[in-house]
Amino acid sequence: MGALNLAEWQKLPISLSELCINTTLRCGQSFRWRKNDLGVWSIALHNRILSLHQDKEYLYYRSIRPSQSHIKLQAPPTPPSSKPPSLPEAEQEIEDDSDDTLELIRHYFNLSPNLTDLYAQWSANDANFARRAPAFTGIRILQQDSWECLVGFICSSNNNIIRISQMVHKLCNTYGPLIGHLKDPVVPTDENTIKVEGEEEQETITPYHDFPTPQALSVPGVEQTLRNLGFGYRAKYIATTARLVAAKELVTPNWLDTLRNPESPILGTSPSPSDPFPPSGRPGYLHAHTSLLSLQGVGPKVADCVCLMGLGWGEAVPVDTHVWQIAQRDYKFGKGKHASLTKVTYDAIGAKFRALWGKEAGWAQSILFTANLRAFSERVVQGKKTEGVVKREDDGDGEEEEERVIKREYVDEEEETKVLEVKEKKTRAKRRRRN
């Protein structure tokens, strides 16, 4: 299998602590990305095939328009740079990109906030977050298309990430516009991938379809087709919701996007201030949540997923099985009036997390959610916890203050073992000997 040639790819300087695509694209936010055997992630997005690769210093990217789509991922996406050598490297990287791909990447991955600062803020307010987050840095909340996000999470009902992804790909292959194909050494995942025998290696041709519009899913026969594709009861929800949204858009164009947080607008639109943030959530978030509940297949969790990942309301806290487990294990839920996940308990968990983490509570919660996924269980090295006393001090009042260091090993995205040190102080009464 050939090596990946990144020499002619565009690149954006960014650390893994600010963005880690290998975690962000696997943690159940978006379901259309494909990763090939060379570590390249690809998706059809905004009338192009967008491909990404990341190392410790750069996010490499290329944008392939439909007319270019039958080229290998190893091939250069654009002609060599014609910029003069005296131009600074970072400026060359941005100016060489003649289309809006860099703007799309910055918007889609929500790169404006400083993630290191946010992690520090959440850690300062929550000891549990401080313990778990260091092994899961670089997770960002995507700014996705609201309609795609809605349908994806309708598919998530009683489902897992792998099966949701399979459903979404089937939906796109059946009803979405074909943007093009890529030849790459990806292991076939469905019947739409065609094997091609080459002289030196085996390749596959993978079609890339963009997401179908509500109108495309409103035509007769959609429900039955989706049932035939294995969607089960979700087929009716998707077909009915598509008709509802299409009807709303006849009256209010882009109806779903009118529910967006003005601080997180669609691509190409400038942000504007939102309402002040109260612990219960801003009025715009509450209105969006209520509006989504009027659609088929949308309960509180799906509505919060769409509010958070499709409409930009950072305070939305989706509570599913994983988050309920976290709330019981780490935040003292599961007892008394919150013994079961009722609506009252659901709302109480959201309020608790908003009080801890503020208006980006949903973002912080998604990091703990990711840490709770089985797919990332290998990230933390089990049995690698050590403790030691580093200092004892007598405060002169018959008490002794002890400082202990707890070291935990974990594996980062580059599969390097790192050690996290957490210092704890304990004060105890000093034992006195009898004379």
Automatic annotation (TrEMBL):
Molecular-function GO term, any one: 8-oxo-7,8-dihydroguanine DNA N-glycosylase activity
Biased composition regions of type Pro residues, renumbered to the chain: 76-87
Protein localization: Nucleus
EC number: 4.2.99.18
Main location: nucleus
Domain HhH-GPD: 189-366
Enzyme class label: lyase
SUPFAM superfamilies: DNA-glycosylase, TATA-box binding protein-like
Keyword entries, A-Z: DNA damage, DNA repair, Glycosidase, Hydrolase, Lyase, Multifunctional enzyme, Nucleus
InterPro entries xrefs: DNA_glycosylase (IPR011257), HhH-GPD_domain (IPR003265), HhH_base_excis_C (IPR023170), OGG_N (IPR012904), Oxidative_DNA_repair_enzyme (IPR052054)
Annotated catalysed reactions: 2'-deoxyribonucleotide-(2'-deoxyribose 5'-phosphate)-2'-deoxyribonucleotide-DNA = a 3'-end 2'-deoxyribonucleotide-(2,3-dehydro-2,3-deoxyribose 5'-phosphate)-DNA + a 5'-end 5'-phospho-2'-deoxyribonucleoside-DNA + H(+)
Full protein name: DNA-(apurinic or apyrimidinic site) lyase
Region annotation (Disordered) ranges: 71-95, 387-406
UniProt cross-references to PANTHER family, sorted A to Z: 8-OXOGUANINE DNA GLYCOSYLASE (PTHR10242), N-GLYCOSYLASE_DNA LYASE (PTHR10242:SF2)
A Pfam family this chain is assigned to: OGG_N
One Gene Ontology cellular component annotation held by this UniProt entry: nucleus
Biological processes, Gene Ontology terms: base-excision repair, AP site formation; nucleotide-excision repair
Sequence similarity: Belongs to the type-1 OGG1 family.
Organism per entry: Septoria linicola
